[in-house]
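Morning run. Coffee first, then this:
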Amino acid sequence: MDDPPLQKIAISGPTLASLIQRFSTAPSAVDGLLFGHVTPLPLTLSDDSSSSSADPALLATVTGFLCSPSFYDSSGAVLPAALRPHSSLLGWFSGRRRSPIRPSMREFSVSTSLSSLSQFASRIESSDSPSLFPPCVFLLLASPHSDHSHVHTHEYRAFQFRAGARRFEPRSVDVVNIGPAFRGHYGAFSPSSRLPALDCGLRGSPMSDGGDEERLGRMRQAAKDQREMDGCAEGFDVGRLGRMMGSEARSYTEGLEELYQKMLVKIENLTGLVEKSSAKVLEQESHNRKLKHKILRSAASE
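And here it is:
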């Protein structure tokens, strides 16, 4: 039975950037393993019966990689002992400089050997029937023949190695988080911050006119807000936050810079306290070690 076909391969922007950076900074060619998962794509309705297929459309998503040049021998045979069993192994990658971006005979041998190892096949997620997907994804990175010192160009292509047909089939690559197609992913974005949820609207001073209970409540709330503010930026007046919002915020850039400066000072103070406490812990451990040796020596002498 032939391997289930992939419709496309997806990889996140940071993962691809990290992979290209590892390739560009390596002194020579790089090889490694690709990890991720395989999921079926939603079915699309069509009146054309000839376009329907019994095999579901699959998407392979690359979530990580590992540079490992020693997982195959000189003939291209994969060494199973060099691979720890991993349920998310999708395939492997190869990066080489100044070479055409097409698989070589060595890469054909490695892909043939790797895809035949059924113990490293991964389960297709969200599938109605339990089925396995072999590690047959191959990502090839290359740099062009012409080398410009001021311009760095990197090319990449993705393939699925079909063991039954014994050939590489090119697959399209979707880079997640890049391009207008992924702007909708941020529609439900909700910011999070360590700053307290303060009411920075226009309101009077805590000592303004009002009943005694109302004035006392405002004073307590102002004191509570100031304590929360001091936890992030000690010494910054919480009342100044209201002037940094709305149409007047443009004229208070210096106040915003002061807020950030006080937050940095708070972080530096906490860092200093952590360093001092770590030094005391090390000093106490050294003292305990000396006492332990002294007790052992005295017990041995008796």
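The CA atoms of residues 71 and 82 lie 5 Å apart. Good start to the day.
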